[in-house]
Here is the input.
Amino acid sequence: MKQLMLEITGNKEISEGFYRMRLESAYLAANSKPGQFVEVKCSSGPDPLLRRPLGIHRVVKGGIELLYKIIGRGTGLIARMKPGDTLDVIGPLGNGFDLSPHRGADILVAGGHGVAPLVALADSLVNSVGRIVDREKRGIHVFIGAKTAKHILCAKDFGKLGCDVHVATEDGSGGSKGLITNSLAAFLNTIHYPLCTTIYACGPTGMLKAVAGIAMEKHIPCQVSLEERMACGVGVCLGCPVKVTRSPGHQVTGFEYKMVCKDGPVFNAEDIAW
Ligand SMILES: Cc1cc2nc3c(=O)[nH]c(=O)nc-3n(C[C@H](O)[C@H](O)[C@H](O)COP(=O)(O)OP(=O)(O)OC[C@H]3O[C@@H](n4cnc5c(N)ncnc54)[C@H](O)[C@@H]3O)c2cc1C
Ligand code: FES
Here is the structure.
């Protein structure tokens, strides 16, 4: 992890309120894992004081991309930055997804801007792990949930990687109508998924909890990337706790708190005290 002053080489609105930014950094390109994040300084002055965490959306030649939604002051300021500007970034931070159980099918579930780090994950599963995509047996199935059709992000990116893409919108304006977790549950009820299937999910807590429930019911290992408000981003301020079960030797003996920034943001779904 390093503090880096990076050149912005792209920062475009790709859908209403969502931006994709490209940063030049051979260091981050070489050292980032899917599911890790960076802490971004949103202005050159003291306001806002705290950096904002953003997931690594994609590793590209000589740099990385971020995909972010304008939520408040910090992301609003980042959206105004132009190619040629410099961004002060600390990263890569956090643990990232565990790609070791990649022999079976992979199921990626995204809600809202939670889709951002899952593109880097799909890219790694397809390219770095050297898998041969066999849609029937060992494919990558991506489930994207959004409010409306115009909020569906990255479906084409996943398609280009050869993933099998499922979309659901709350108002039915794109894909199936309803929650993406309903589409996931229906899919798992109808297909014969291979052993070693893994679910990876990123999105709002309610969605992650529902995905964790489905995964547990089906006995499918599930990794969730959590979001918490953050300050230091490196486990020092104790500002981003999550309650997890303490289970030495797989026997639950109580609860403890872990820091989302340092111990996560990716956790095994069954370890979280939902
Ligand atoms: C590990 C991690 C990775 C992330 N990756 C991405 C990403 O790739 N793309 C992306 O768009 N966003 C991502 N986020 C969320 C992003 O960090 C927040 O949207 C951002 O910090 C908001 O800053 P702001 O200054 O614009 O909003 P603020 O002015 O700080 O907040 C505006 C409002 O939103 C609420 N809020 C802000 N952040 C959060 C939060 N994390 N949880 C709950 N409520 C919140 C505040 O309470 C406030 O009411 C990630 C968060 C984490 C922890
Ligand atoms: S943000 Fe400081 S401990 Fe996580």
